[in-house]
Amino acid sequence: MAELITPTERLHSSWLAAREEWGPDAHQDGSGLRLVGDDDLRSPEGFASWVARLRRQADRSRPVGEGSVHATHWWIADGETYLGAIDLRHSLNAFLLEGGGHIGYSIRPSARRRGLASWALGAVLLKAPELGLDRVLLTCDDGNVGSARTIERNGGVLEDVRGTEAGTKRRYWITVTPTAPDPAAHPST
Fold first, then answer.
1. Cα–Cα distance between 135 and 33 in angstroms, integer?
2. What pLDDT, on a 0 to 100 scale, did the predictor assign at position 12?
3. CA distance 3 to 82
4. How far is CA 99 from CA 37, 66, 91, 186, in A?
5. pLDDT digits (tens, 9 = 90+) for 158-176
6. CA-closest candidate to residue 133, choices 70, 55, 53, 183
């Protein structure tokens, strides 16, 4: 059964297999790949260094780099299999307000169409009030019908569609309230 876990070095080989499905240069929303720096993710040491950066980004007592915000990262996993990633950005800077949003997520191609993105988004929305957020912004590419449906299933209300430096984005707001998740909504893997 799928679960949200803190990024871990334990899933290195499964993460690499997922990366091959996307292709080496594909953008993976919610993955934190921009934090890689000069690390070689194929090496255990480079991968461990990146995973440590992902974990540190949630620590509000530590400064983040210019242009960055604090964010909590989770991986979607089923046992030892990496299925995807989702992150919750604790605040918005100008870029995120325009076209990035509070939450980014991606599911590896072989694990799509199982409800994982909707389930993970619903679970992460429950965590937003813990950060003082009562409303979150989510965006997706204008042509990404699957992501738009995922956001709408979780209460997303379309504010607008606009051109941004990252392309044409659909911008949705979701009002969040702390409630218990519906266990029946958990996807099968």
1. 25
2. 96
3. 10
4. 23, 18, 13, 29
5. 999 999 988 999 999 999 9
6. 70
pLDDT digits (tens, 9 = 90+) for 69-125: 999 999 999 999 999 999 999 999 999 999 899 999 999 999 999 999 999 999 999
| Contact (CB, 8 A) for 112 and 146 | yes
pLDDT tens-place string over residues 22-43: 876 777 777 767 767 666 889 9
DSSP 8-class letter at 28 = -
Distance CA 107, CA 92 (A): 23
Residue 188: pLDDT band with limits 50, 70, 90 = low
d(CA 59, CA 44): 24
Alpha helices in the chain (DSSP H): 12-22, 44-56, 94-95, 116-125, 145-153
The maximal CA–CA distance of the chain, rounded, in angstroms, is 43
Residue 15 in tokens: 């993460």
Taking alpha carbons only, the member of 91, 74, 83, 179 closest to residue 133 is 91
Which amino acid, residue 49? S
Which residues, other chains included, contact 37 with Cβ-Cβ below 8 Å and sequence gap of 6+?
Answer: 49, 50, 53
Residue 76 parent element (H or E): strand 71-78
